[in-house]
């Protein structure tokens, strides 16, 4: 029997762990989980971003390559965002594994999803620490880009701190329905129990 999912764990310099649940069928992360500590968020700003790299811990036939996205019409979208980890070159590098990347509509990636990413950093600073879980939603028969990488229907983010009874969740479709200038974070907020 072939496993459909695999867990990839990467340890940050802070002692926290990036956990990626990788879906072999879709060649994509299904879930990405990490903890952000407020004392590190926005502590520095590394301008030189690392290169995307293929995740060697994944079996060869299920690996994704940075070149798979060329001329695909989709961005290499981070689930665990690079700006949340730009306090350390080593930790930032871990985020650039292709196992943490999904095909994202360019406008959603650059102008919509970034609001939720900014909010997770804001809350990490305010609450001292937040746990973030990102999930990816696929249709039963998704479309694909090069190398049979599935395009998601949408994706979501749960930000929480159980010690302070804080939890908010946001869902984004992987296509644009309106102008980014009209977008606000609350338009994407959903009941966490629905995820």
Characterize the structure shown.
- With 195 residues, this protein is an alpha+beta fold.
- It has helices at residues 89-95, 106-127, and strands spanning 5-11, 17-23, 28-37, 75-78, 101-104, 129-137, 144-145, 149-150, 154-161, 166-173, 189-190.
- The strands form 3 sheets. Strands 1-2-3-6-9-10-11 form a 7-stranded antiparallel sheet, with helices on one face. The chain has a two-stranded antiparallel ribbon with strand order 4-5.
- Strand 2 (17-23) and strand 3 (28-37) form a beta hairpin.
What's the helix and strand layout?
Elements: E1 5-11, E2 17-23, E3 28-37, E4 75-78, H1 89-95, E5 101-104, H2 106-127, E6 129-137, E7 144-145, E8 149-150, E9 154-161, E10 166-173, E11 189-190
Antiparallel strand pairs: 1-2, 2-3, 3-6, 4-5, 6-9, 7-8, 9-10, 10-11
For the structure shown, list the relevant keywords:
7-stranded antiparallel β-sheet, alpha+beta, single chain, 195 residues, two-stranded antiparallel sheet, 11 strands
**Number of DSSP helices?**
2
Rg computed from alpha carbons, rounded to a whole number of angstroms: 16 Å
Molecular shape:
globular
Strand arrangement in the largest pleated sheet = 1-2-3-6-9-10-11
Round the mean pLDDT to the nearest integer and report it: 95
SSE pattern, N- to C-terminal: EEEEHEHEEEEEE
Low-confidence runs: none
End-to-end gap: 29 Å
- Main sheet overview: 7 strands, antiparallel
Secondary-structure-based class equals: alpha+beta
Strand content: 25-35%
What can be said about this structure in brief?
The protein is of the alpha+beta class. The chain is 15% helix and 32% strand.
